User: Which sequence fits this backbone?
């Protein structure tokens, strides 16, 4: 073969190899699983936070959402908790679906720039192992409030990763919740939780309660203000990026038909909304090392749990 023909053959081989690599790359890209992130930034604007809050609530109501609670955990932040029939009906179809019965909308003042954001329904549906992906709820929130970008994780998580998510080896999964109290029946548990929150036990207060239709299950939003369970203290450490994740709050209790009161372990509940948070260093889990136990204690007190006294008797928290 002449030198010229040899070069032509080499070029043809190279081109074929290049086409093969490009085809493989396109194929892999097309087949790559979608990466989900925990929050959606709806809008960023200047203006009066009170007016933007009022407008946001009106838009949510017009889109068919029911506002079940509101919360201002610290200056410049306001959270609106919403539900609708789609959320409640989806929650009914999963054993612990109550966690997904609400979505949280936040209006946050970042030095005069007002961020309107909300939890990503599809991300939460997969993290909480719901039957449906809540795509209809995502569309409703997008239509009502807008959709600039998803955020809260640099790379995001695939559906299969969310279904089995835990922060790291030895850390809890979704199905490793804290059992806060046992009351023997759903009705007794509801009564105990309502009484505990009304009394402010553990530095808690009630933000909302949503009862799941067709089953004995309720999700209750709880504000916490005491020591290392304090919402403000925890968020100061973990919510430090320019686009805030205020809609992480509030925490939830789940009153189950078995008469037990549950809460997602804080080691899961915080990590699922801040999956990129480092273990150590500035703005890390190490800075809130005492918070998981403090949160469990506060929520246990709010749930009407009892502890044994040293003499063998029982003492209410």
Assistant:
């Amino acid at each position: 073969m002449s030198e010229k023909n040899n070069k032509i053959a080499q070029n043809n081989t190279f081109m074929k190899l290049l086409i093969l690599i490009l085809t493989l790359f396109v194929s892999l890209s097309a087949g790559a699983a979608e990466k989900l992130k925990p929050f959606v930034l709806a809008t960023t604007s200047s203006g009066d936070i009170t007016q933007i809050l009022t407008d946001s609530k009106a838009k949510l109501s017009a889109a068919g959402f029911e506002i079940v609670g509101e919360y201002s955990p610290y200056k410049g932040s306001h959270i609106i908790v919403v539900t609708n029939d789609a959320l409640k009906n989806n929650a009914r179809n999963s054993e612990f679906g109550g966690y997904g019965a609400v979505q949280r909308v936040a209006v946050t003042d970042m030095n005069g720039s007002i961020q309107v954001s909300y939890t990503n329904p599809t991300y939460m549906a997969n993290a909480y192992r719901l039957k449906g992906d809540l795509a209809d709820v995502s569309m409703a929130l997008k239509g009502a409030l807008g959709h600039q970008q998803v955020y809260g994780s640099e790379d995001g998580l695939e559906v299969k990763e969310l279904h089995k998510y835990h922060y790291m080896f030895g850390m809890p999964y979704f199905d490793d919740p804290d059992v806060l109290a046992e009351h023997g029946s759903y009705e007794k548990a509801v009564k105990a939780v309502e009484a505990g929150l009304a009394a402010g036990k553990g530095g808690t207060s009630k933000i909302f309660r949503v009862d799941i239709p067709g089953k004995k299950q309720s999700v209750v939003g709880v504000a916490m203000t005491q020591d290392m369970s304090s919402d403000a203290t925890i968020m100061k450490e973990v919510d430090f990026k320019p686009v805030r994740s205020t809609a992480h709050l509030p925490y939830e209790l789940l009153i189950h038909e078995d008469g037990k009161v549950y809460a997602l372990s804080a080691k899961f509940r915080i990590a699922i909304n801040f999956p990129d948070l480092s273990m150590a260093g500035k703005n890390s889990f190490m800075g809130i090392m005492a918070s998981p136990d403090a949160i469990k204690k506060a929520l246990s007190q709010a749930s009407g749990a009892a502890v044994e006294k040293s003499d063998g008797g029982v003492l209410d928290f």
Q: What stands out?
A: The chain has ten helices and 13 strands. Confidence is low (pLDDT under 50) at residues 26-31, 308-317.
